[in-house]
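Record pair follows.
FIRST:
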Amino acid sequence: MRAHDSQPVNEFSYFAGADIKFDLLFELMENYKIFLSPRLTPRKLAFAMRANLKEMERSLFDNFGLSLSEIISIYRIQHSRNLLTAGIDFYDIAQFSGFRSMRRFRNCLDSFL
């Protein structure tokens, strides 16, 4: 099994359809797996969606209680959990899940688990 074949579980799917931008966000995350790019930032994601970053952040916080950065991290953590259960080496998981470094990966693990 290759690292990028793993499917993340969408913990936000019950909000899909609530807003067209949310549908686009979840499509980009789930179908295109853009969260796997270590270069992805909330600003770049909002730009790709042709959305105002501040408005997107406010809308996400109002609907989910999370920032765009946290949503990206959640998708990455879920993907890393899938890789871990697939037997991928722990030190490779950070790279295959879109984290810039092992330190960032560990910080996200501490924050979300």
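SECOND:
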Amino acid sequence: MNRFVARPRAPRVQPPPGRRQPAAPPKPQAGSGLPPHPDRVGSIICLAGLAATAFFLQGATPEDVARFGAVGVLLSLGASMAMDLRLGVHNLVRTDLMALMSL
């Protein structure tokens, strides 16, 4: 048995001869393909703040020492998170930040 599909006889519309302009490649959006990552300046500020907190740690009672250390760590992490926020809010949802904030 010989089965076939009849093809239309209408001519296909061809583009006019000549040069075609290549399509412009799409411009990547800022941070579109990158996973969330820490900002280098923010990490340096955080480490400097933690070192300063450890160096100037003082207090008359153990509670004062713990309070001073907690405030220093909070300010250091806050500065680091502010630098990370420059890359977008989605950059703050990272495993390392969640682990540090849970402490």
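COMMENT: The mean pLDDT is 82.
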